[in-house]
Each structure stands twice: as structure tokens, then as C-alpha cells.
Amino acid sequence: MSASDVIATFEAKSGGGAWKNISRADVVTGLRARIANPAKIDTSSCSLCGPAAFLYSVLSEYPEDYCNYICDLYDTGKGKLWDFEIKPGSDTKNYKVPTDKIDPVDWIGLGGLRDSENGFFDYQSVDDDASAITLPMTLTSWFKKATYGTRHNVTNLVFTKSKSDIEAANSLRNQGLKVCLFVNADMLETSTQDNKSKIPDHWIVLTGPVLIKDDKISLEVFTWGEAKRKVPKSGELSLASFINNFYGYVAAK
Fold first, then answer.
1. C-alpha distances in angstroms, 14 versus 9, 17, 103?
2. Bridge partner residues of 229 (DSSP)
3. Are residues 15 and 128 in the same domain?
């Protein structure tokens, strides 16, 4: 069954689902937009970049499985991505979604995933920054639970990585792996790209080749609703400035 067929079957059902403040029509609209353009997954106003990197990787290659996951989550309150079962709590499902901050279908998919995987802390609001944090081992475990057979976790939480590490990440992308870069988001904006960061705070997905020449670097990534966001956003970015904000990668296939 194609992704379009999954959505059509879901749309034909009557009544609401387990998410009391989200309509079936809103889910259908959101799904169709994301099948047409996976980069519609947008976390620019919340801290769900880890789930976004994971689900963008799934959606861009397996749209029908992504749609089944969202539709089952909406109808029953739990969904699966292959062997990976996601079952968020009632607070997340009953949340009144602020649509100026996140699309309802992203709240179901991303918020549902984040809350399902949290232990002590609930994720029940787009303003819950602490409980939204996704560590590299967590992102790696999601790919493992979803039965991605090849996985690499080459990350640090304090010290930045090196030129050879971004070159290795680029090589893995060329081999067909989904490559999620662990960075400080300062590098994504012209005004802050040369800052020397202290901690990583953002996940992005490598969507284009990494080009390094004359100690300058450029690449394209998925983040904040853009599939091909250019790094640097404008002008030039030195390799040194990139390294000062690069903490490694998680890759899977």
C-alpha cells in the first residue's frame, strides 16, 4: 500500500482518535504535505530536533511506514516503526497544540516519540525544553529499535570533533546512510557562525555533499522546515569555525 493509499484509508474513517484536540482532517492535511515534501517537518519553534532528524530520515526513504506510524498513533494512541513501538502518555495526547509553534501532525509524530522514550520526565508541551533533549545514544537506539542494521555513533558531548570526522560523515552519506550531525545551532546563522560553542544543542541531517577547499567548508542540511538549508547561510564559513560547533554524527542504514 502506498503512502497515498494509507492516507486515503485513514481519511475515510469517521470520528476522532486518541488525540482529543487534533482533528482527523488536520492529520490528513499534514501527512499529505509531508509526503510531498518531507522537510515540512518543522521544529523551528520547539526543541524536538532529535525526533525530527530521526523521522525525517524515515519519511524521506519510507513514506508509507511513516504514514502508518502517524495514523496508528492518532487512531489508537500507539504506533510502530517496524519493531519500534511508540506509546506516549495521556498528557501528550490531550495537549492543546499551539499551531503557531508546531503542526498537529508533527506534535503527534515528534512529541509522541519523545514522550514515549522519556523515563522520569513527561514531554507534554512544546515549551518543555529539558524533557525534549535527545542524546546521541538515544538517537542511535531509535535507529536500532527500528531495525536499521548499520549504525554509527561518533559523537562527543563536550569536546568538538575533527575534519576527518566530517569527511567520514560525508563518505557515509555517499554510501546511502542517513547522517545526523550533532552541532551547536550557532553555525546555522551568519551572525553567530564564528562563535566558539561550549555544548551541542541541535540535530541536523546531512542532505548534500560536504565541500572543503582552502580551509573553507560548505554543506546542505535538513533543519527547521528546510531540506537544503545551506551552511553557511550566506558568505563563507571557515573550517575552524565549523569544527568549533561540530560534535560528531549518528549515521544509520
1. 11, 9, 22
2. 221
3. yes
